[in-house]
Design goal:
By secondary structure, the chain is mainly β. The chain has one helix and 20 strands.
């Protein structure tokens, strides 16, 4: 089987049986041989840790019958380079793509209303992400330690940026926070050492401890505004 000029041996391709409705918890975890997974239409859920630590997995086809990607479903799939999440998915579980170190791009559809804690943490090759309008909260640690992330689009409608949400995103240079946000939790942008500017709207009434600690490159004007809002560096 060949895909994008990559040749897969039959033994490296996992084709999930057509009658499957749910891929069970830990069903294919620790399988270090498979490089490609084909999930058939009809599967509605990918269970917790379903492909956890499948370290050779490069490609996965998720059909538009899937509504939920479980916690740690693709955690530590360190060779996975890209993933297209279909617009049938409404929930991406905790640490679903944690430590997918080769993941350079991800498409999150407007159908997704909840991205759980740490869903894309330590995706160290991810350079940009667009959060869909359907998301109202950015949970804790969702993009923490995405050290190549340079830009992020936070949509109108988000009311809260969770604890450690962008912690140690060391390449992030600027963030525009929409005027729907009322709370920025503790350590949300801690150690974003390349961050030079943050547009903080008047709607923000609470900024947690250490939210901008270690953001040494922040402009003086941004720091002054933060101080006026009661934030202490």
């Amino acid at each position: 089987m060949k895909e994008n000029n990559t040749e897969f041996l039959p033994s490296e391709v996992l084709i999930i049986p057509d009658e499957t409705k749910k891929i069970g918890d830990e069903e294919y975890s620790w399988n270090e041989k498979i490089k490609k997974v084909v999930i058939p239409y009809g599967v509605t859920e990918i269970g917790e840790r379903a492909f956890w630590n499948c370290t050779s997995l490069i490609s996965v086809e998720i059909p538009d019958s899937v509504s939920k990607i479980g916690a740690s479903a693709f955690d530590r799939c360190i060779s996975l380079t890209s993933v297209k999440i279909p617009d049938s998915v409404t929930e991406i579980g905790q640490c679903a793509f944690n430590c997918c170190e080769s993941l350079t791009s991800v498409e999150i559809p407007d159908s997704v209303s909840k991205i759980d804690e740490g869903a894309f943490s330590v995706c160290t090759s991810l350079t940009s992400v667009k959060i869909p309008d359907s998301v109202t909260e950015i949970d804790g640690g969702v993009f923490s330690e995405c050290t190549s992330l340079t830009s992020v689009e936070i949509p109108d409608g988000v009311t809260k940026i969770g604890e450690l949400a962008f912690w140690r995103c060391t390449s992030l240079t600027s963030v525009k926070i929409p005027d729907s946000v009322s709370k920025i939790d503790a350590d949300a942008f801690n150690c974003c050492e390349s961050l030079t500017s943050v547009e903080i709207p008047d709607s923000v009434t609470e900024i947690g401890e250490h939210a901008f600690e270690g953001c040494e490159a922040l402009s003086m004007s941004t720091k002054e505004k933060l101080k006026l809002m009661g934030y202490i560096f």
